[in-house]
Write a structure and sequence with these properties.
Blueprint lengths: L1 H12 L2 H45 L2
Length: 62
């Protein structure tokens, strides 16, 4: 029983995995931000091409 208690105490003091977890959370937040930015950018780009298409169609009468 003492060995189990000692292992649990040592495990609670071990912080080696904490840094990896923090980096994982930072990367996850960055990915969410990038996805949101690309999503907004793609919508604006689609609208721009639709405006250009409509102007060309209107000017050529096709």
């Amino acid at each position: 029983m003492e060995k189990l208690t000692l292992k649990l105490k040592n495990l609670s003091k071990d912080t080696r995995g904490a840094t990896a977890m923090e980096y994982g959370l930072i990367i996850a937040l960055m990915v969410i931000g990038i996805i949101a930015g690309v999503s907004n950018f793609s919508g604006a780009t689609t609208n721009m091409y639709n405006v250009i298409t409509n102007k060309i169609t209107a000017s050529t009468g096709v």
